[in-house]
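PROTOCOL LOG
Step 1. Enter all chains and additional molecules of the complex.
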Amino acid sequence: MTNVPEPLLKRGVTAMDNAQYPDQAVGEPFADDHKMSLRNVNVFYGDKQAIFDVNIDIARNEVIAMIGPSGCGKSTLLRSINRMNDTVEGCVVSGELTLDGEDIYTAKMDPVALRARVGMVFQKPNPFPKSIYDNVAYGPRLHGLASRRAELDEIVETSLTRAGLWTEVKDRLDQPGTSLSGGQQQRLCIARAIAISPEMILMDEPCSALDPIATAKIEELITELSQNYTIAIVTHSMQQAARVSHRTAYFHLGHLIEVNETEKVFTAPEHELTEAYITGRFG
Amino acid sequence: MQTANLLIVLLALSAVAYYMARGRSVALAQPLGGIRNLHSLPFFYGMRAAIWCALPSTVLLVLWLLFDEHIISTLLINSLPEGQQPASAAEYNLLLNSIENIASGALRAETAKPVLVAAAESLKQLQQTGRYLVTAVVLSLAVIGMGWGWVKVSPKLRARQQVERVFRGILLACACVAIFTTIGILLSVIFESLRFFQTVPATEFLFGTEWSPQMAIRSDQVGSSGSFGAIPLFVGTLLISFIAMLVAVPVGLMSAVYLAEYASPRVRGLAKPALEVLAGIPTVVYGFFAALTVAPFLRQAGEDVGLEVSSESALAAGLVMGVMIIPFISSLADDVINAVPQSLRDGSLGLGATRSETIKKVIFPAALPGIVSGVLLAVSRAIGETMIVVMAAGLAAKLTANPLDTVTTVTVQIVTLLVGDQEFDSPKTLAAFALGLMLFVVTLALNFVALRVVKKYREQYD
Ligand SMILES: Nc1ncnc2c1ncn2[C@@H]1O[C@H](COP(=O)(O)OP(=O)(O)O)[C@@H](O)[C@H]1O
Ligand SMILES: [Mg+2]
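Step 2. Run joint prediction.
Step 3. Record the structure below.
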């Protein structure tokens, strides 16, 4: 599922070229109580446009899954939400993106402060080559969240507990984070992200490098975290989207095609492209 | 035949062998239904024949070239009449020399002893015969090899394996050249150093604080007793290297950080080649820059503020050496910084760290082992650097830590010990070997540690 064979994708694309992209995503892309709202968002890499005119809301405390074939711009959109794309040479984002009603692409908004509010977990676990403790304490130290060592200890403990890792690592906090297994490393990265109490967490295929058991643990964790955080998760696994998310957004070649309740998307998709994708006709 | 001609003929023969065997393998494959029925591609059959043709004959030729003089002279001396046999090795060489000189016409035959003239004749004869003989043997070996290569071609022959084995052997031999050369140099340095330590005790050399290697040539000379305490040299070397690192490490590292993390591709494209040019400047140019520009400038500046700066100062040499090492450190550091995975940068930025915080807290610690080993390599270069210090640091072996004073280094002393016409077994010249051994040991240790660190660091991200 993760690696789409090239010819299959091509065939899918040509077959689907006859299908019209909807002007606007079908289904229910908007939410009344939204945490994040995107309007007319276009993203370019140099001359190449990767995202076309996307409008979508992310509701407070929901888990929204983003699915779609490789290269359809899921990561690009996700990285626009916390301005990680600023670090990519030649990447331009246009449109209106607001977090709690505040435009995040104005000069007033400091991308560094924004990233502290919108945390990110990456595809490949990327613990720093430091101790487990220092990995989790990294963000709090950076932002001065603790003034005393005891406070920092507490932040580290709660974050690791929330990430479901505390019992496994509490006796070896001084060992390097890289010495953990892949799944533990990814949970460490999640603990690291929640240690600075972000308002929203973005996850870009967080389980694609993990085995099924580690994946199950992370999914359980996502469900728990959704009580306190707004989460956007990109995934290649439709089962995973079905298990963890409330709503699902389907992307196709940079266009947002359909957004609906997850159950509806997987049982009765409104758009033919969505249906083609979830029934495995391409991607 | 001349050796060069012989080699050309061998080359031509092996080309013929290649094409014949290759052609034969293709021809043999035809009735079987194409070359896919051969064990190996036709190329390998051809190569196999070429190797059989060229390798044994070349080996024989090389052996002959190595030993021909010895064989011929032994034959020659043994052929001399009873009374003329040389008694000692020295006499042997003398005799041989005069015979050779007569043969080449350098010594007039009329004035020489008739026995020797006869010997010269037979020397020419022997050389002539030797050449014919070796040409004949080498060529027939080549032809036999060629025939053997051709005859053995068959679809079942495992030609590829054989050819590859030979090539592996050749690669191994080339690798051995480097290793044995190192060992050879090391052994000769150690051997000469041991001779030095027989006249000058090692403790005096290692811990003595006075260096004045002038030896009395005649026993009644005064004032030139020769003392070989190397401490002033080590201190001078360390002082200059320290000044150089003081310049090179901060500048090199910061330029590397700028290039790797901040510079736009355009700036990077301009700055990297510029640094490489800096690295390509011959050290002798740095040397006269230090001696003719920097040293007088420092002296002048020192005078202006009332400091006494010697015209050949450790500071001048160290500063210029530091500049020389900057590109070395910055390009090594740039490499290790670039090797830090992008995902770590993303992880840190994604937690709301600024660029400089990311560099300070994630990239630098991650790259530190690589940077440390780069610095160690740079130190070993600074210690071994010769030209700049020869031109700018001076010769006086003063034991001082004052960078404005003149000092001398190990390398400078090696150079001065060996220029001039001393006998090669006087303690003065042998001292150069002992100094060389010290340098060798120190730089080897530094390089060893540095490479170990780099290796460990590599494993971390692979
Ligand atoms: N740094 C970049 N520079 C140029 N093009 C990029 C870059 N990153 C992604 N793209 C292009 O943008 C499109 C969307 O990529 P991405 O967002 O990574 O897709 P997804 O995550 O859905 O697989 C792809 O066509 C990809 O080639
Ligand atoms: Mg992606």
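Step 4. Note key features.
Residues 159-199 of chain B form the longest helix (41 residues).
Residues 396 and 408 of chain B are 6 Å apart (CA to CA).
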